[in-house]
Amino acid sequence: MNKKLLQIILATIIYIPTFFIKPESTLQISLFIISYLLVGGSILINAIRNLKHGNFLDENFLMSIATLGAFYIKAYPEAIAVMLFYQIGEFFQDYAVDKSKKSITSLMELKADQVNLKTENGIIVTNSQKIEIGSFIIIKPGERIPLDGIITEGNSYIDTSALTGETLPKEVSPGSDLLSGCINLSGLLVVQTTNTFGDSTVSKILELVENASNKKSAQEKFITKFARYYTPIVVLLGLMIVAIPTAILGLSSINTWLYRSLAFLVVSCPCALVVSIPLSFFAGIGVASKEGILIKGSNYLEALAKVETVVFDKTGTLTKGVFEVQKVVTFNDFSKSEVLEYAAYGEVHSDHPISQSLKRAYGAEIIEDRIIEVNELAGLGIIAKVDDKIITIGNMKLMNHERIDSFESSEERTIIHIGIDGIYAGYITIADELKADSKKAIESLNELGISKIVMLTGDSITSAEKIAGELGISNYHGDLMPIDKLNQLEYIMVHLNKKGKTIFVGDGINDAPVLARADIGIAMGGIGRDAAIEAADVVIMEDEPIKVAIAIKLAKRTVKIATANIILAISIKVIVLFLSALGYASLWMAVFADVGVTIIAVLNSLRILRRKRL
Amino acid sequence: MTKIYLLENLGCANCSAKMERKISKLTGVEEASVNFFSGKLLIETLIEDETRILEIEKEVAKIIRKIEPNVIMKKVK
To answer: How far is CA A202 from CA A131, A159, A207, in A?
Structure first.
């Protein structure tokens, strides 16, 4: 059994009979002293030790003075009771803090320290930290993946929920990328590693989450500041309560006032606040990471609770970002295959999803030698020389600029116009699809009281209109170049937003400046994408916009609980101080205001860990 | 540069707040934060010189010992 608990129990056993013994007899007083030393000895020792270091306002010292003072005015039962309850309170507090620490860190139990390494002499079990990039490792069913890598042999299903919050198992086969931290469910896998242990996904995520609560929220800063002035002020008030009345009324009444001032010393510890507020944020960040939402600081968690405007990037965030050619319309006697062929050739060097879709639709192999020259015009399109033809591919602006007489389509899709040697050849329509949960994400945000939702996109205004219409977003802007997105965001932050925070949600690929400029930059689909993790304040591991609403919900709950704790702790303390000054409160009440409130506040913070459906 | 340390046996939350305040005031330390729950101490510094950093570490250890003698400080990064 715990030593502290043993002391508490023994002290209680000795304490109880004192109620049945003749008051102030030698026996009773000796039992009091034994009980007191048993339960409070360590506190007295700590107090003396801290005093040597010049820490006068340390809680051990204050408790010692309060209880010794009670002895002095012959309030023996209360002297022991204060010490006893203080220790019981501390015991429960330690227990609760310890438990929450464990349940939060267990959310982060993602590391596998051991690995089955394939060597010339067979398989050996070794430490994950020793594995070099390019080694071959074996992962058995049921094992956690220790290092990032690529599957070379075997098929299996893996559970990515620890990283992404996604409960559906993912099918993997040779060539699939594996991320450390996931669990191999069914088959035996041979994997070639692509990262060292220190650089692996799981190490990076853990580091990020563990260090996140070091970036403190305004509430935490307020509490530390409050604690700094609270104790000296309360102690000073306690001294005045003895000094002033005694000076006026004379020494005869000193014991009454001394008793009242002792209560001040007992209530002077700010523990309830200093423990429970940071605990709330720590728990909030822990629960979020379990949902696949990495929040890089308590300050961001707090800001999420005050969101007024959410700005979404369209492509890859609200839509899948996978484009498909829908149809090819030709003009001036060009054939469909011709138009598609030249479009694919012209866009050959671009990685943009639209270019990829053109190449996919063309299907045949691209012969590099046919491409003479390619010039990309940002925000307009491409002018290329293929064979002996000049190919112009892009939007209407480009066609007008090149004086190509084109057909203005009213279709609500992304449209690529193609000109060949200055003659309009036709257009290709390309469409993107909404993500399954985009609509629900917008609805959930509305339910949370966030009505200012804006969509920005580099695509045409007609395609923006279509997507916005499907989602019920009334505020949208299309045809934006990266710099326009930044300007739009700044405009929104200054003019649309009143006092709340502005979030920008993007996929983290081309929008780093916008992510950085917003109050909170959220990057989506961060898993395995280092640049996005770097640039954003909040990273959503899986490609799910609904997680934005979940993060805000969680943040609101965290801040609400933290605020409740601040109000509860401060008001109970102030009330008890007031009552004791007037002589209505006993030392018993003071002990409750100290440790009782701490326990209530800690238990309240732990409610954040309860994972009800978000 | 961010230096990360692990503080084992942190006993009281108010003490870790005190440590944070005192360490922040050391010359050479731009920002310091102690997380009572993870036990992590983060120190932000502009100093690159290793010997100067060792001196700062010594002062940090002294502050910690004064406030909570049972705490063990370990370097993480």
So the answer is: 15, 14, 9
Q: Which residue of B has its CA nearest to A58?
A: B15
| Residue A388 token pair | 């002996």
pLDDT tens, position by position, A510-568 = 778 888 889 999 998 766 566 667 778 998 888 889 999 999 999 999 999 999 999 99
- In terms of domains, do A335 and A303 share one? no
The pLDDT of residue A412: 57
Rg over CA atoms, chain A: 34
- The whole-angstrom separation of Cα B31 and Cα B24 is 5
- Alpha carbon of B52: minimum distance to chain A alpha carbons (Å): 24
Q: How many domains does chain A have?
A: 3
Domain extent at residue A174 = 132-195
What digits encode the pLDDT tens for the residues A585-600?
888 888 888 888 888 8
Q: What domains are defined for chain B?
A: 2-75 (3.30.70.100)
The model's confidence at residue A336, banded by pLDDT at 50, 70 and 90, is: confident
Q: With bands split at pLDDT 50, 70 and 90, how would you rate the model's confidence at A405?
A: confident
Tell me which residue in B17, B35, B40 faces A274 most closely, judged by beta carbons: B17
- Among residues 173-202 of chain A, which lie with CB inside 8 Å of chain B? none
Domain match, A412 and A426 both: yes
Of A100, A104, A271, the CB nearest to B13: A271
Global model pTM greater than 0.95: no
Mean pLDDT for A88-112 is 73
SS3 A247: helix
Size of interface A-B (CB pairs under 8 A): 55
Find, in chain B, the residue whose alpha carbon is nearest to that of A281.
Answer: B37
Dihedral sign, Cα of residue A293, residue A299, residue A300, residue A305: positive
